[in-house]
Write a structure and sequence with these properties.
DNA-binding; DNA-binding protein; mainly alpha; DNA binding; 93% helix; single chain; 1 helix
Length: 28
Amino acid sequence: MIQKSKEMVRLPEIINDLAFHASQVLIE
């Protein structure tokens, strides 16, 4: 369960990554 909190810390990082990929797809 400790790993869950570690993922929560990375959540903004993951959202940033998803947003980046989404913008790349929209640009193409």
